[in-house]
Design goal:
Oligomer: single chain
Shape: elongated
Radius of gyration: 29 Å
Helix content: over 70%
Number of domains: 3
CATH architecture of the largest domain: Alpha Horseshoe
Number of strands: 0
Amino acid sequence: MGALSLTMLIALQIILMRIGMRRRQARNHAMTQAWRPVLNGAMMGIVPATLPPLAPRDMMPFLALWLHLQQSVRGDASEQLNAIAYRLQCDLLARRLLNQGNRTQRVVATLVLGHIRDRTAWSDLIREARQLDSAASILALWALVQIDAAETAHALAASLLLRTDWPLAQLATILQEERDAWEPALAEAIGTLDPVRLPDALRLLGALRLSLPPVLLNQMLAHADPDVVAAALRLATSPDSADQVRAHLTHANWQVRVQAVRALGPLGQRDDVVRLKALLADPHWWVRYRAAQALAGLPFVPRDELEALAASDRFAADIMRQVLAEQETL
């Protein structure tokens, strides 16, 4: 009898849950039917004087719909959606959810506050951006950048350099239009880092295609730690750095030589052919391979000259033939 009673209770609970789910779906559908035309009209500049009623229990589904539309628009259409959100006091709700809601509610609140660029939520978003939760914290970074990119860079540049859990692709998307604000702040933060952290920080800047001021880059290229030098060579993309890059072609550390060859490839001049040819006989395979790639990528070196370069050395011949064969398959 006890087992039968428990089974019946579980069955009843499942039935009640399904009824509740269907009711929520019906409410969400009704809310969408009422509000989608209003939001679509707002994006085209047609804003009604009176908005449809919106019950408190429908606010989260409404915000989901509002965010979905915000992802696909910019400019005036986005501002019109923001105006609707302010009329419904979504800013107040978002700030409350950011402080008191569960994880899902905090994520939604972060996105809303970023789109409406709510300055009053600044300190709460800074707190979220420093949390260990990777997904929630990088969304908070995005929201802060929408509000004030320069101040965000000043506040979070050092934290960004220490984060190894933020996806690079997402981070690059957030920073791509704000390079002028972030590059000076990151350069300043680089100078305050523990030397042990420097290689990872420099590699992050290279992955994000950000640059350092020439003076600071030269300091990194002259660093005593080979890992720092190798990472800094990834940022040496200016012709002004070519001489320092050439100086590292004979570095004792093979990883530094590899990065020096890679950096010299796009910067190479006719005189660099002799330097790169010498590296075709380097003891380390990766150095030989990158040197062959750099030579093959020089626009002023014809193919017959490349084939002649490899004739005098067995190692050079092997690696050059491999690179030339790879080019033929492209």
